[in-house]
Design a protein that fits this description.
Elements: E1 2-6, E2 13-17, H1 23-27, E3 36-38, E4 41-46, E5 49-55, E6 60-63, H2 67-77, H3 84-88, H4 97-105, H5 116-125, H6 131-145, E7 148-150, E8 156-158, H7 163-167, H8 171-175, H9 183-194, H10 200-203, H11 208-215, H12 223-233, H13 244-253, H14 262-265, H15 269-289
Antiparallel strand pairs: 1-2, 2-6, 3-4, 4-5, 5-6, 7-8
Helix pairs in contact: 4-15, 5-9, 5-12, 11-12
The protein binds a DNA duplex through α6, α12, α13 and α15.
Amino acid sequence: MYNMKKVGMRGVFVIRIEDDFDLEKIADSGQCFRWQRDGDGFRIPFRDSLLFIRKVGPQDYEVDCTEEEFDSIWRPYFDLVRSYRAIRGKIKKKDDPVLFEAAKLGQGIRILKQDPWEMLITFIISQRKNIPAIRQAVEAVCRAAGKKKTAKDGTEWYMFPSAEEIASLSDEALASCRLGYRDKYVRAAAEAALRGEIDFRKLSALSHEDCLVELQKLYGVGIKVAQCVSLFGLHHLDAFPRDVWILRVLDEVYDGGKNYRFDAYAPYNGVMQQYLFEYYRNKNAREVSV
DNA sequence: AGGCAGGCTTTTA
DNA sequence: TAAAAGCCTGCC
């Protein structure tokens, strides 16, 4: 799927990605909230690693890690073993012109394989917040509880905190993250994880449906958050989170969802959800701004 | 029993 | 001031 060539020392090299891959669209797609723009590229934290990546050609990207790190960490993270062009090709204009248009504009979006614990806390925090507010709150939690790291080039950043680290925060420290009523959900999730009531290694062995049931046992986790954790953290690509935007498009375009062909796009309904989400959110934003 | 209204903290536009 | 990648509680 991609070829690599080294262009220098210090673990900096260029990869060629020949599939759908658009950093800007992924960054704006509402699945990741810690990417930081840096010059003409992005800094991407994931577990204990920080990647700097920037586009240097139509299909070429410079990354600041070793080939081994890219293969073991970042290739799975970006889900580069899967062809999103092929998934997009399942959509026929005559069958669904709206989804076709959404996918055309959304070409380059991928479903990242993110850390499920981070996704759980992040999407608990996301409730009734817009994307800038989610970013701010998540970063506050990382600064309050996460380990401080220094990248090779001296950049300081914070890891996403573990359950232990979140549970050990004082009420005052957690309150300083300004999560509002969600802070009790976050603490409850951390304490449930410490008691072994939520274990992502066990969860990843379950079916998508069983995952949703287990996740919704957590205080403050409903169907929407459970679907997001399943899609973005457990990489169940058929998960279909219904947020306000998706409910809106299902209502306005698909007669409340009755005319949307979930069976036609299984097991990739989650990818289609991302196209529709971006399309409808941007469409609405354009209409508002005009 | 399950569907629905009201409330919830804070930020953003 | 309304809305924001919702969920919980209480009521019927």
